User: Fold this.
Amino acid sequence: GAVVSQHPSWVICKSGTSVKIECRSLDFQATTMFWYRQFPKQSLMLMATSNEGSKATYEQGVEKDKFLINHASLTLSTLTVTSAHPEDSSFYICSASVGDSLGGYTFGSGTRLTVV
Amino acid sequence: GEDVEQSLFLSVREGDSSVINCTYTDSSSTYLYWYKQEPGAGLQLLTYIFSNMDMKQDQRLTVLLNKKDKHLSLRIADTQTGDSAIYFCAEWSSASKIIFGSGTRLSIRP
Assistant:
């Protein structure tokens, strides 16, 4: 089946540094990928929609200069958290649409970011 | 705006049926989903239903959709300890994005 690989699974970084999270579609092409953020014991919040070859579409309230999204190929989207601060600590999950069916969304395993 | 609501907790006895309920507000939703999240893991799509369907059954899972009341439910028959997780209801909204509920934490007691 369609698999989305997300790396790293967890990362600890110092305040002020940047962290890059990768999301790869392993056996299919994903023209659109989505990035979510999940706070402890809360639901997923859509951060942005990543479109291959064009700029990402950010949700209201999400700082585009802080959360840089690049979707340079049909199999890779990256999320870079720039100048990370402790409040950026969270669980980040990517997802991709499989084919044309809206029912076919597959999710990465998530990345737990801890900023110290 | 678009909103998806579900209760936060559910506790059931092993072997009983679990019913997780969800309400949504976007009457234009075309697809509704149930996802499962185990601790520290990503989401696993359990099942989805088209808005023109009333029911969908897949092994131990039964999804019921009442479009008039904008109510969706997930029934898990013969609940097992491995079913312990957070279950998210979600809708494909008219704004072309998936909106998630807050998740229902299902715990199984012996």
